[in-house]
Batch of 3 targets.
Target 1
Amino acid sequence: MSCASATLVVWTSAWLHGAAAADDVLDALGFWAGLHEVVADDDGTATALDLPGPDEAPVGPALLLASLRRASATTARLVIPVPGDVRGLGANGPLGKSALRAGEAAVLPEVGVGLVPKLVADGVLRWTVFDLPTAPAGEHVPIGEAEHGLSSAMREAATALVTLDVARHRPNVRAEIAALSAEHSAVEWPAGMPSRSLRVLQRAAEVAAILTVAASDAPGGAVSATATRARDEALRPLSEAVRRARLAAVDEAVRVLSDQGAGRH
């Protein structure tokens, strides 16, 4: 429902500004995997951050945090790339390609790096640290605009889904949606997480659950190519609204948590 990069971005930003402890960051990452490991994609990035290179044994995320502190990192941003839109990553470089495959990335512009997670074994999530090319800034979505867009897309999609008869042969569809969206509530956030960000993330999780169920629906076991295209067209605006809502909610959380940390100094 959420993603590991969102957890890393929010908690690391809180930690960098004194609004969370390093152990809190590590504990929060535990939701996504029992073991996290970190390695640099190239020798230059490895040397700059004193991290293992691509041919060396990875280290734990605690050493990543120490490296970011030494490099004077101040904040992080979530990027959720989609085909045709990899803003903030560098279109054709290793970071952009890897993030597009993963569907997510965390970037630290001041340090000039981006991190992409990948499950490399059962319970093992590897974060690869890439050089962040000079590129236009990532997309900034005002949270009010994103929240409004999510509500509008939801209404439009609801009409389309009724028309398409999505999930008509799945009597437990409501329970499926509830179970999927409930997974999101287990994600831990810092104590100072703004309530609006939490509300938007929860709403996005609920809508994403509907998307997941609708996309897997196959009445009668077979869906014509025409019906599939119609369904995908109906769901695409909703998927984009979820993406923008998550970006906006995380951006707002980073802003508020950073301000809270600054107020402590």
Note: Residues 230 and 237 are 12 Å apart (CA to CA).
Target 2
Amino acid sequence: MTICAPSSQKMDPARVLDLPDGVPPLCAFYLYLSNSCNLACRHCWIVPHFVDGRPSPGDVIDPELLRRAVCEAKPLGLSSAKLTGGEPMLHPHFVELVDMLSAEELELSMETNGTLLSAEVARHLKTNTRLRFISISLDGADAATHDRFRQMPGAWEAALRGLSYLVEAGYTNTQLIMSVHRGNVAQVEALVQLAAERGAGSVKFNPVMSVGRGIAMHQHGETLDVDEILALAAQLRALRKQVPLRLILHLPLALQSIEDLLDTGAEVGDCGVLSILGILGSGEIALCGIGRTIPELVYGHLGQSSIRDIWLHHPRLLELCQLLSDAAHYPGVCGVCVVARRCRTGCVADNYAHSGHLVWPNPWCTEAERRGFFPTSRLKTGTRGG
């Protein structure tokens, strides 16, 4: 395998790993516990399943097969897992699965819509597991805006109730995630104030991208353009001076100001793709959740494929490592950007969905360059002013 720069995923430097020289550690599993959801969000690629009017989890990860995969991956560096979906809490053995992963000493985080949380489960997660960080989706400062986007009446109240259970259980760092589009961007400040009032620790803003059902939103002119994104960045810069919360915008590193980078610790950038594997509810082992819709980014299957063989030898992973290591030959504006080696052209899954290429410039960076306001301080010497 080509030697790759270390990823941003954290790992205990004292651990001795069973890896050939030059192979990066497999630090994290992204676990898509269920391939279904109890909501039908307008931007998502998940199609919810209902049986007799009740949400069905659809395909879910087999806990025993997952435990075996964890045991196989730990000598490769596995130390953490992110629980996501679909809706992870739809898994019929959700609590037992979190207990198992905690017993395997993995540090855990979770992304959830918050509607299925109970006070009892929140207390158990905080007291008895290694689930340290939980993000809850909240897409409006009022019920009408959130529920219209999530396409389920009562979702806003249920999400805030879930947040209250986490705060009462002792979580002080719960994050709210807002999927920003033209229908809710005017509520950013109100949502930040709501987050502060309800005890959240941070708010992350993810602009709706042209993937999944977000393609239709983009075609209908509902997604933000680069001018609106940069205006949102300026708004958040001002809000950080007014509230005690961390406010994070998913924005390419090259378009972030120095002040933004200092405020957020430059944590939005490389997604760590060279240190993760995704495991889908179907049991498929993939680049990440995009494997649901793009079969060529699936590498194997739990119970049938060796995690070690995939990590060391799968041609798609070898190709990705080679492409990301060769920053001098990144396409488009990435090829002349001084932070490209750090951001690695952003989300390779989005890149592939948009262009059919794993390594490809973010469309906002491309548009900024085309219109002449890509920051000259982020261009390599000899390309400034181009």
Note: The longest helix spans residues 155-169.
Target 3
Amino acid sequence: MKKSDFYFDLPQELIAQDPLEDRSSSRLLCLDKNTGRTTHKIFRDVITFLKPGDCLVLNNTKVIPARLLGEREGTGAHVEVLLLKRKEKDVWETLVRPGKKCKPGTRLVFGNGLLRAEVLDTVEEGNRLIQFSYEGIFEEVLDQLGEMPLPPYITHKLQDKNRYQTVYAKYDGSAAAPTAGLHFTRELLAAIEAKQVHIAYVTLHVGLGTFRPVKEEDILKHHMHSEYYEITPETADLINTTKKNGGRIICVGTTSTRTIESAADDKGIVHAGSGNTEIFIYPGYRFKVLDGLITNFHLPESTLVMLVSALAGREHVLDAYREAVELKYRFFSFGDAMFIADFEEK
């Protein structure tokens, strides 16, 4: 299977640069995963497609303001540090720009000395291990100095940090938002629960690997990034009971999908626990738990569009994407959404 099999033409102007004022007013393209038929709605209409006894699976990770702008001690040269993964209490794996100037032993200063750091080592893919020093609580210092690490295709400055955060974000740890969840408001979630639709929360901390392009033309040679996830016993029980009772499991976002599919055994039973997943889902994959997916529109030739194609078929997905382009849907993190399910069930 080739990377180019997942290419589609996307005009630059369709990449959404700013979030809509009302989260739930985005457009929603509904794609029947079996027939390829499409219908067009507004996101808040998603409730009409959910049935009592279904289970909506949300990723409650919280994006940290992981982008730090500082300088090299002694030279005053500007440096940008992106926090990727906490290794120990004050030691983080980071992406540093410019990296060549930040060899082990280099000292960095942020916020006129509120936060200081030393480069300890160079690790996989040129990332740097950095140890931070500060007074007080790291998360409070980071909240004061850090910026939201917006994806590279968003060039506008975000006016409100909370708009790159879901309304149900709970556990710090992500370098990027689980963007399908950005469309939900508290009011919409309350209405969904009132319809007797179950809501289950998983945690997967999204890394920047989610934006890493597939470089190999043979997609099977692509090395999938690793991300940490947790599933509580309560969530596992809720998902398993829903399946047992004939309800559908509908994931909000590819991160929720990767989490439950990683935690499921061959019989489709989800097990509580935590770990790192490198699961790579592409056409030919047999879903063990997932029945439907609410997701944003993804980059051409990305692992995410491959995952969506595994659920609904590559041709159906690319046809739907071409239709979305023609109708000027908004793409990527702050863009519109797609709901993929069997809409013609008897």
Note: The radius of gyration is 21 Å.
